[in-house]
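Q: For a teaching session next week I want to show students how multiple molecules come together into a single three-dimensional assembly. I've collected the sequence lines for a complex. Could you give me the predicted structure tokens for the whole thing so I can convert them for display?
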Amino acid sequence: MTLRFASRLDNVETSAIRELFKLLGKPGIISFAGGFPDAAMFDVEGVREAANAALTEEPGAALQYGATEGYQPFREQIVGLMAAKGVQSLTPDQLIVTTGSQQALDLLGKTMISPGDKVIVEGPTFLATIQCFRLYGAEVISAPTDENGVIPEALEQLIAEHQPKLVYLIPTFGNPSGVLLSLERRRQILEMAVRHQTLVVEDDPYGDLYFDAPPPPSLLALSDSVPGSRDYLAHCGSMSKVLSPGLRLGWLIAPAELLGKCVMCKQFSDAHTSTFSQATAAQYLKAGRMPATLDRVRTTYAARSKAMGDGLRSQLGDAVRFVQPQGGMFIWVQLTGARGQEKDGNALAKRAIEQGVAFVPGTPFFAQNPDASTLRLSFATADIARIEEGIARLAKAL
Amino acid sequence: MTLRFASRLDNVETSAIRELFKLLGKPGIISFAGGFPDAAMFDVEGVREAANAALTEEPGAALQYGATEGYQPFREQIVGLMAAKGVQSLTPDQLIVTTGSQQALDLLGKTMISPGDKVIVEGPTFLATIQCFRLYGAEVISAPTDENGVIPEALEQLIAEHQPKLVYLIPTFGNPSGVLLSLERRRQILEMAVRHQTLVVEDDPYGDLYFDAPPPPSLLALSDSVPGSRDYLAHCGSMSKVLSPGLRLGWLIAPAELLGKCVMCKQFSDAHTSTFSQATAAQYLKAGRMPATLDRVRTTYAARSKAMGDGLRSQLGDAVRFVQPQGGMFIWVQLTGARGQEKDGNALAKRAIEQGVAFVPGTPFFAQNPDASTLRLSFATADIARIEEGIARLAKAL
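A: Of course. Below is the structure for the complete assembly, covering every listed component.
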């Protein structure tokens, strides 16, 4: 057969992570590879009660077609969530509900990117963002980062040089970097957006997952104090990392004109996000169960993060370098090659699988200039005993 | 602010239907405008039991990230549904679950259509298909139809002339036409697909909604008897018209290479469809509740269709011409202009709203050469008394 496919497919390949995941079926393997939350943390009873309440109180709305913009009671609950995180003066009509925050990225790509347009992302960044934007024909430019996130001076230079359609950042506990963009840099980036009239997309799925102190305010929360910046800021949020990824609920906050165009595109992407999921989540939030669930997740992930950091330090010593995360789900590790030890993440990934532990090598997270000495370890899904055993296996593989 | 949007947005406008829908808030209006099923038909208790069973038996799977291809038990249930409709030898890996069948269209657009490519649709056809494909840069060509569906000779001529990337058809109780493509024509179209090596997309959300006799086999069911045709056939199915649109569940069956590319694109569109919705639907189908629900819907819609047809004949007489539907949700009406009566569907729509009844004028359903004398009436949501009253108001408006 001779189907001729769209030329946009030439810009992407199937995810390297996906290929790796096929190996994870191997029995007994300890995986630090996933980007998943721990299913044992899900508040199943809370979701059950919420789903039942939705079907009792609003069965028509929960099961019928709904507005493309989202189910109004859920939009109102999201405004409440955002207010609790310092985002004031947000109204429900300034956000739309998306089918996971992945769809928010897809809608931003669809509305903003023409073939050949440039976008800037952090190096490293979320793999699916790179691929999503490339499918719309973007040339994806990688901005340098350090342990405080993206480097503003370097970013501004790239913006001036490339005139990108948008800059995509995960400022808080980034995937895969785990790092926190400093408050000072957050302010600089908002000012830069205004100065260059360039859209900045803040992806914030992990901001709730802090361990001790809350992170600095999101770019969105901070935008009130940087005049004009709200006109150049889009913000993606998610219910996936704490409540449940299976509900597929995210949201997009953006300037009105852009948001309207995203709604138009969403009409033809999936018409609207599952109203059953939205009504369930709205009931869950209304029932006030989120704070307790969040506390439980924070405490658990904090302990696992510590266990993994301790293990890396004690068992891999000078072979690795990393910043101990203050939140999120990931440790981003650099192989130092000290004393002739393995310095290539891809090579180590293969040897690690043989030893019964899996992680994602860092290369695919870079849109340009991949640093092959990096790897991403997730501490979210394995319990402490398995984290310790997994790190021991990693040490053996090294 | 000065955001520069993607050029693909220049190909579409916000749906005319959407603008019309804003008027439907007027109190007391009887609406034949929606494409919605009747929410009163939803088996709310069945969905509740299914959701609870999903959360009891498989809470991890129902709430966690899932495979982009779909939740395996739901894929297996879909194979069962299709087998009951005469589709033999289908396996779960030959289909993927989509976020409503709208997403199947979006994925077909994303994988198949480069800017400037041509696609052929029926004139008239589903409005959101036209817009969806245009967003990917398609030039949408309209093929002529009659009371037996698309006219094969005319379609073949257009295929030869335009070399389209795909031909999109709703062969069974089409939206908006309500008509049934004849068996003979179905076979001709499959042969044509093979002869011209052209992908045919069969959208089949309404096939289950027959009133008396089942419709002819779907193109998919028929493809077993037309050698080679399966290689050029994609089929979109939906849970939205009977079980619930709010679950946002559809599926796509397509040749392996195309299906693989759709999976890759879906990864970056929404990662996967709500596993909570999928697990709920899988439990619902497993519980065997679908046949009774379907019977109830068929009986109700058959009576409403008859009431609307009778009303049109008795109250509007020679001012209208239409084919009495044998299934589906719509009557497609042509204004004849007899005895100097209104012949313009758009003008009538405005006058009808003033009289307290709404419908969608036919113009937006045409990708080319709109027939302004047409209108689409849905008989699905209003009960018989309101249908009779609505038709009386329509007569008054005329």
